[in-house]
Write a structure and sequence with these properties.
Elements lengths: L2 H18 L1 H9 L5 H19 L9 H19 L1 H5 L6 H12 L15 H16 L1 H8 L7 H7 L12 H25 L4 H12 L17 H14 L3 H8 L8 H27 L4 H16 L14 H10 L15 H19 L8 E2 L2 E2 L2 H27 L4 H12 L20 H15 L3 H4 L4 H4 L2
Antiparallel strand pairs: 1-2
Helix pairs in contact: 1-3, 1-4, 2-3, 2-7, 4-6, 4-9, 6-7, 6-20, 7-11, 8-10, 10-11, 10-12, 10-13, 11-12, 12-15, 14-15, 14-16, 15-16, 17-18, 18-19, 18-20, 19-20
Length: 479
């Protein structure tokens, strides 16, 4: 383990974080907000930590284990330092709440402990939403795009970009990182313009663009998208939430006019669209028959909430915790699906869910005919046994973390539905849940122990679990 080189590399990431803190400082200065000094002090502390780390002279070459340490501890540093403006400005009453909010922001979970968002200063709202945008594509990936400082950056790429097998669609890693960030920025710019044209202010367009394209869900309103009560705004958000849940490889292939036939990403996209439309139809049926909504409104609400939950964005167009049981059941199941691999969405991912079902059907068929040989395929793409085994192990660990989180949150005194939905939302980076942590509530009332545990689940879910859990194995640290 090359600790000096690890510390030096982490210093670069921390310095980049300090630079991003300058952006909300501009809002504080513009508004002549008391939060100016909170951001100035946070920038100085963060930059100081980064410079001290950079002073450590690097020795040796990074290996795979070093890469996992950089990603794991890099995210902890980012979240810990990113919590400073929230705490020092007095926005949160404790550092525990600030850390939770920061973790929720950078992991694009969207769970919040803040109330009366309309009274929160604009620089703080901008910072928590900017943390979404940075965390959606990954601040470490941004570091790779700007600073080619890691000779084995592929480890960081694989650890931070969600998916079964992250695809480098350009020969050089830096080129891939730059291309992904450019596509990400282009989607953001397009939505920002669309929301401005739909009638939102420039500031609220930025906030909700950051929350949409990152599939994070932080809003500047307590009622989330419901506060605008505007069908045009809702349709813009629906479209861009859906687009943000698509594998970014598809966008690159379309821009380069490359064939999508027999593409793993194209097959996953078909399943992704099918799942969302089917879920939206079920929710719409439930709202028409159970609440009495008109078919048009029911479908718009159903589609919005299906896309929001499936992509783990977490925006709410209504208090879905009061909807009929069928609608709530569909939304709860969608929390375990997620978007496509290689997107900014969280949870299991569509490809894994489909592969799990295909594997289960294969085992059922082979039970009746043990000698039957069935090739593992995802569309026209052959899937190796190694990928299947990785999918099964990931699913087991995901469910184990979810159940462990449920038990711990229940142990702090929370009732069952709140505990279940809080743990599911945290490990899936989905944001609001049901009952006490539903769209009409938040996570502020939870016990500090529950907040720290849920923060860990958010990080594990964002980094695809194994990247975090491997750091807890004794063998990882042995020479």
């Amino acid at each position: 383990m090359h600790f000096r080189l690890i510390i030096h590399s982490l210093g670069t990431i921390v310095l980049l974080l300090a630079l991003t803190m300058i952006l909300p400082l501009f809002w504080a200065i513009k508004d002549q907000s008391p939060g100016v000094m909170a951001f100035v002090f946070s920038i100085l502390v963060t930059a100081g930590v980064g410079l001290l780390m950079k002073m450590v002279r690097p020795v040796g070459d990074l290996n795979r284990r070093d890469g996992f340490v950089i990603v794991g501890f890099g995210w902890l540093l980012i979240v810990s330092l990113g919590a400073l403006p929230l705490y020092l400005s007095g926005t949160t009453l404790s550092y525990t709440d600030a850390f939770f909010e920061s973790m929720s922001g950078f992991t694009t979970t969207g769970a919040t402990v803040l109330t009366d968002l309309e009274a929160v200063s604009r620089e703080v709202l901008f910072w928590r939403s900017l943390s979404h945008w940075l965390g959606g594509m990954g601040i470490i990936l941004l570091s790779l795009a700007i600073f080619p400082f890691l000779p084995t950056g592929i480890t960081l790429f694989q650890a931070e970009v969600p998916g079964l097998a992250p695809e480098r669609f350009l020969p050089r890693l830096k080129q891939t990182a730059v291309a992904m960030w450019l596509i990400y920025a282009a989607l953001s710019l397009l939505q920002m313009v669309a929301l401005c044209l739909a009638g939102l202010s420039f500031f609220e367009s930025i906030i909700h663009t950051f929350g949409t394209v990152s599939t994070g869900g932080f809003s500047s309103r307590d009622l989330s998208m419901q506060a605008f009560a505007d069908a045009t705004v809702e349709w813009v958000v629906i479209i861009f939430m859906f687009l943000s849940g698509v594998n970014f490889t598809l966008y690159y292939r379309l821009l380069r006019r490359k064939s999508l036939q027999r593409s793993f990403a194209a097959t996953e996209f078909k399943w992704y669209g099918t799942i969302i439309l089917f879920a939206a139809a079920l929710i719409a049926y439930s709202l028409v028959t159970g609440v009495g909504f008109s078919p048009a409104v029911a479908f718009r609400y159903g589609l919005f909430q299906a896309v929001s939950v499936c992509t783990t964005t977490g925006f709410a167009v209504a208090n879905f915790a009061t909807w009929p049981s069928l609608a709530k059941g569909v939304l709860f199941l969608l929390m375990f699906v997620g978007g496509c691999t290689g997107s900014t969405a969280g949870s299991l991912k569509v490809a894994r869910v489909v592969l799990l079902f295909k594997y289960a059907l294969r085992r059922i068929r082979q039970t009746a005919r043990p000698r039957l040989v069935i090739q593992n395929k995802f569309g026209d793409t052959a899937v190796s046994d190694r990928i299947l085994h990785e999918t099964l192990s990931f699913f087991f660990l995901y469910i184990a973390l979810f159940l462990g989180g449920v038990l711990i949150v229940m142990g702090t005194g929370e009732e069952m539905l709140t505990s279940i939905s809080a743990a599911a939302a945290a490990v899936g980076n989905a944001g609001p849940g049901f009952a006490g942590v539903g769209p009409a509530g938040n996570y502020a009332h939870l016990h500090p122990v529950a907040k720290w545990v849920l923060s860990f689940l958010m990080l594990a879910g964002r980094l695809e679990i194994l990247t975090v859990l491997v750091l807890f194995t004794p063998g990882f640290w042995r020479r």
